[in-house]
Amino acid sequence: MPLNKLCKKIEEEARIEAEAILSDAKKEADNIKASYEQKKSEYESRITSKAKQLAEQKRRNIITNARIEGRNNELIQKQAILKEVFAKCRSELEKLNKTKYSGFIQKLIIESGMNNIEIIPGKKDKDIFGNDFVKKLKEAGITVSMQKKESDFDKGFIAKSGEMEMDFSLSSVLDNKKSELIVAINNVLFGES
User: Which of 10, 65, 90, 128 lies 20 to 30 Å (CA to CA) from residue 148?
Assistant: First the structure.
């Protein structure tokens, strides 16, 4: 073969081989690009999904916190109202006339279950525990004696029977009744228990 034909044949084979290499390289580049696009799409999908989940979680947290804050505010308001109700109750008890207040104290003594009682009155209640008071309790089967000293609070009394001593100061009575009454007051004021 003449040299010229041989050179052309070599050039032709080199061109064909170069085109094949170039074609393979292009296919590989397309495959890499397609693989990258698929990975990019999957990554974007995961990021979008994660962002949606985080946004939904954030939304739920905001709603939950708002509900909790609302309940806390409601509870604070209810507690303020209950505090006001008990303050009013105390005020009304302090305003009772002597007969009604004496009846209230007699009822406390009778409900205590104590029989032979020594009474230490509050500073402002000395005049409540007169002869009529003692007589009415005696009719109920309760013996009462009065101490000359007075307790350190204004309203109510201390009842002693043997080793037992009970605090019937107005504050203590209201505090003891508070847990019993709070359910009933909640029902009346707020329609719940």
Answer: 90
- Give the span between the Cα atoms of 120 and 77, in whole angstroms: 38
Q: Which domain holds residue 163?
A: 97-190
Q: 186 and 108 share a domain?
A: yes
189, 151 Cβ separation under 8 angstroms: no
148: domain CATH number is 3.30.2320.30
pTM of the model: 0.57
Token code pair at residue 42:
């999957």
Which own/partner contact pairs does 171-174 have at CB distance under 8 Å and 24+ positions apart?
171/90, 173/108, 174/86, 174/89, 174/90, 174/93
115 touches 143 (CB < 8 A):
yes
For residue range 134-173, list pLDDT tens digits in order: 888 888 888 888 887 878 888 888 888 888 888 888 888 8
Beta strands of 8-153 (E only): which ranges? 116-121, 143-146
- On whether the CB atoms of residues 156 and 122 are closer than 8 A, the answer is yes
